[in-house]
Every structure is written in structure tokens, then in C-alpha cells.
Task: structure prediction
Amino acid sequence: MATTAALDTSYAALEPRTRRLYLTLGSLPNLTLTAELAAAVSEMPLPDAGRSLAVLADARLLEPAPDSPEHSYRMGAAVRDHAQAMASDDEGFGTTDYVTALRGMCDWLVADARSAHPTPAQAAPLHPGPAGGEVFADGQTAAQPAPGRAAGR
Result:
């Protein structure tokens, strides 16, 4: 109970944008958190995301990530549980926010992986889906290779 009270106090002292970032980060898998990732999942400008991470660390809601570059953080299990509980109680944080955060995280992870290991295969786009952006009618259509690409590549 003392831990929850301390987390509640730290959470209540946060500014709204940093509070929202806290909720967002708590909804993600346990990753090493950097300003770049925080910006991607929160749609904050990079400098603001970096400052918000530092505020969360100063409030003891994040801890330095071991064996990681400076300004990299982790969210402990008790803190993550608290962030998830706060997100479920917050009427302003819903499924759309969670999906937006996951998309941002996935985009960031792919971009980070591509920058670390560029390959010629990256030039070949995945199947973009039907024209007009409508959802595939069935899984069979979705599994087809992009035009001009051989199956299995």
C-alpha cells in the first residue's frame, strides 16, 4: 500500500503531457525507453519527449536502464502495474490511444532495425493492400505477395 501511495503522489504531481506519456509507456511491452521511442509513441516532439522522460525519472517512475546508453530508462513492474491501473481509470485514455502508441512503437522499431541493418530487401515494399485503403476481404488476399514480387521472398 505504501508503494501505491507513493506512486499516486508522484503521478498526481506530473504535468498533463508527462502524465499521458506515463500512461502510454505503461501500456507498452517492457522495452528500454529512449526519447526517440517516447516521441514515436506519444507524438511529442523529440526534445519534449526527452524532457518528459527525465521528469518521470526524477519522480522515480522510471529507472536508468542497465547496460544501456545514457538517458535510457526502464519501467519497473510495480510502476508499470500502477501506470496500467491509472490508464484504465482515466476516461481520456482509451483503445485509440493504445493502438496509436503500438503503431508508433512498431514504426519506430522497424525504422531502428532498418537503420542498424540495411538490406536490399528493404527496397521491396510489402503488399500495400487494396487500392483505396479498404480492409482485405479475406486472409487469402492479404497473404498474396506485392505485385512484382515472388512468393516466399
Summary: The CA atoms of residues 33 and 120 lie 29 Å apart. The first strand starts at residue 63 and ends at 64.
